[in-house]
Amino acid sequence: MTKTILIATDYSLESMNILKKVLKEKDASEDQNQYNILLVSGYDAGDSIRDLLFNTKSTVFNKIRPQEFCDAYGIIKNKYPHLVNKIICDIFTGSFQRTFNNYVKAENIEEAYYSPSIKSKGNGKFDITPYIRKCKELKVQEIKVEIAERLPERGRLAEIFVEV
To answer: Residues 6 or more apart from 90 whose CB is under 8 A from it?
Structure first.
């Protein structure tokens, strides 16, 4: 059976620790389901008619998502091929709870994971954690991610291989 889960991210390598922990827990519990994983960040599209007409998701991702992030989720997907059906990066552009609830319903999302230590900021990003917490249709779980202060691999793709 295929289920869809949402993971709140800021498109940093530190936020991939949420995905690693979730898949590690599901692998340890010998979960037989496959998952479509939505990595979602909030994005303020602005009010400018020019921005609304000429910005696409790919131009937004070119601004907010580094290439290392894509490489990292590819590595994680290859580590758990029995659990991951597909990984999709997406942005939530709404500003109301009911818009988020409709997004959850449209994408058929059943579970959501977030970490209080991962906050989307800058480049038009905003944190979707308040929307996740208030959504009654989701099974929500907070993931504690401990980020070491001194990590030689910080900011590099090698950071994804550090155990969490």
So the answer is: 38, 39, 40, 57
| Global pTM value | 0.86
Q: What is the pLDDT along the chain (164 residues), one digit of tens a residue?
A: 899 999 999 988 888 889 999 999 999 999 899 999 999 999 998 888 988 888 888 998 898 898 988 999 899 999 999 999 999 999 999 999 999 999 999 999 999 999 988 777 778 889 999 999 999 999 999 988 776 666 666 666 767 666 65
C-alpha 117/C-alpha 124 separation (Å) is 19
Domain boundaries, the chain: 2-161
What span, in angstroms and rounded, lies between the C-alpha atoms of 25 and 8? 17
Domain 2-161 has CATH 3.40.50.620: yes
